[in-house]
Amino acid sequence: MLTFVLWLILLVVCWPLALAALILYPLLWLLFLPFRIVGIAVGGALQLLRAIVTLPARLLRAVGRA
Fold it and tell me: pLDDT (tens digit, 0 to 9) for every residue of the chain, 66 residues total?
């Protein structure tokens, strides 16, 4: 909602810039989409690596409680 209000203010102040932003935003979103997908994949790989590294400590902790 805040983004829309800011866009309306931009439309009143400088309508050509607001229209350019309206046209360029979807194009930039499509351009950055592969980087977001790579970021999600790298984050998942790092979480998997962390789980593998901490597995022995979690197993020892679980055996110690039993």
Answer: 999 999 999 999 999 999 999 999 999 999 999 999 999 999 999 999 999 999 999 999 999 887
Q: Determine the structural domain holding residue 29 and report its residue range.
A: 2-65
Q: Return the half-sphere exposure (C-beta side, CA atoms, 13 A cut-off) of residue 2.
A: 0
Query: What is the pTM (predicted TM-score) of this model?
Result: 0.61
Whether 7 contacts 21, CB under 8 Å: yes
Distance in angstroms (rounded) separating the CA atoms of residues 59 and 63: 6
The count of domains in the chain is 1
